[in-house]
Amino acid sequence: MSAVREAGTSDSAARRPEGRYGRSASADERADRKLRIIGAVLGAALLAFIGWAGYDYIAGTKISGEVIKFDAVSDRAVEVHLEVRKDEDAKGYCTLRSQSADGAEVGRADFRFDQRSGRIDKVVTLRTTARGTTAELVGCHSD
């Protein structure tokens, strides 16, 4: 059997030259994969930023506090060492409460913090109706 070939053609000439007729399918797949990865990363970053901005706008407080220690100085008062952190220009108050040994609330009061300082350490006196055995920070709120 004889194979008939046209003059001037060979097996290597039957293949198209690389790069002459556009990119190959594998190069398109690699480019598509890279674009998907970049899109996913940018999308995740955008969602993270929106989540952070929403949390900061809704739940971000300008004033926060912490009870460092407390001491029941009498049957009618509890001294509370309170540390308050806030923006320097923020004004607001923190609410403290005290409970007796049986769990009943015996005192509650708001203490204002309008100083132009970012950190305030202050000992406040919480008046009670009976001997207080706890001092609890209920929360801090800006005006």
What is the CATH T-level topology of the largest domain?
Answer: Immunoglobulin-like
SSE string = HHEEEEEE
State which percent range the strand residues make up.
Answer: 35-45%
Ends distance: 100 Å
- Helical fraction equals 25-40%
The best one-word shape is rod-shaped
Biggest sheet record: 3 strands, antiparallel
CATH architecture of the largest domain: Sandwich
Q: What gyration radius follows from the Cα positions, in whole Å?
A: 36 Å
Q: What is the total domain count? A: 2
| Residue runs with pLDDT of under 50 for 5 or more positions | none
User: Can you count the helices?
Assistant: 2
Mean pLDDT: 85
CATH class of the largest domain: Mainly Beta
**How many beta-strand elements?**
6
Structural class: alpha+beta
Strand order of the largest sheet: 1-2-5
Topology:
Elements: H1 11-14, H2 25-58, E1 63-74, E2 77-86, E3 92-99, E4 105-113, E5 119-127, E6 136-142
Antiparallel strand pairs: 1-2, 2-5, 3-4, 3-6
